[in-house]
Specification:
Elements (H helix, E strand, L loop, with lengths): L2 H31 L3 H12 L4 H13 L7 H12 L4 H13 L7 H12 L4 H13 L7 H20 L4 H4 L11 H20 L2 H15 L3
Helix pairs in contact: 1-2, 2-3, 3-4, 4-5, 5-6, 6-7, 7-8, 8-10, 8-11
């Protein structure tokens, strides 16, 4: 076969597969929103196995919660790992959380830090919050009140922006993208952040506080 014809054939096959994946993922999302978790899991698995990172993340979430499948943290870890390989911040955060707590994998705070850091630097507020905790507690990293303050402040700013955002259809499907505007953990974390910032402000010297505030501005410019 002529090279140019072969290239065209490959492109047509790829477009066809992408179209089928998109349809199956959409069907899975609709089934999920209607509470038909078994159908959703089957649809997501169908496309996750051919490389759809959205479906990989969705499957990880379903195995973690036990919706539509038997709860299995090791399977959740496997699918979150695959999704994180595509650079998904939500998957990086979930993997970090599993390493942080020791669910589905042996506890490893240092790996948790690396995963949180990757997601936090792309603007993922949940990961920024967890980094603030890790630096404040010296968990998996050298204790550092300046970095703790900076990450908490960055998370506070991003949570405020998310809460002010208009909800979309995508926000209704807990299987893809950034945390939805009505994410209950955002409100919980925001309250914890206020207390943490007050405590850290009391501990930091005026020069340290200025350094922490400046660092927070740098973090906000990373995404």
């Amino acid at each position: 076969m002529h090279p140019s014809r072969k290239s065209v054939l490959v492109l047509l096959i790829l477009w066809s597969v992408a179209g089928l994946c998109g349809d199956a993922f959409k069907e899975g999302g609709e089934a999920y929103k209607q509470g038909d978790y078994a159908t959703a899991a089957a649809k997501f698995k169908e496309v996750a196995e051919v490389g759809d990172h959205r479906a990989m993340y969705a499957l990880g979430s379903m195995y973690a919660s036990g919706n539509g499948v038997t709860k299995d943290y090791q399977q959740a870890f496997t699918w979150f790992s695959k999704a994180a390989g595509y650079g998904r911040t939500d998957a990086q955060y979930k993997l970090g959380l599993m390493y942080d707590i020791g669910i589905g994998v042996k506890k490893n705070p240092r790996r948790a830090i690396r995963l949180y850091d990757a997601a936090a630097k792309k603007g993922y507020a949940h990961a920024q919050f967890r980094l603030g905790l890790m630096y404040a507690q010296g968990n998996g990293v050298k204790q550092d009140n300046i970095k703790a303050y900076a990450w908490f402040k960055t998370a506070e700013t991003n949570y405020a922006a998310e809460s002010a955002a208009e909800p979309t259809d995508a926000d209704a499907a807990p299987v893809d993208g950034q945390p939805p505007a009505d994410d209950p953990f955002a409100a919980i974390h925001a309250g914890m952040i206020q207390t943490a910032l007050q405590d850290l402000t009391a501990k930091l010297t005026p020069d340290e506080l200025r350094a922490a505030q400046s660092l927070a501005q740098e973090y906000l410019r990373l995404r």
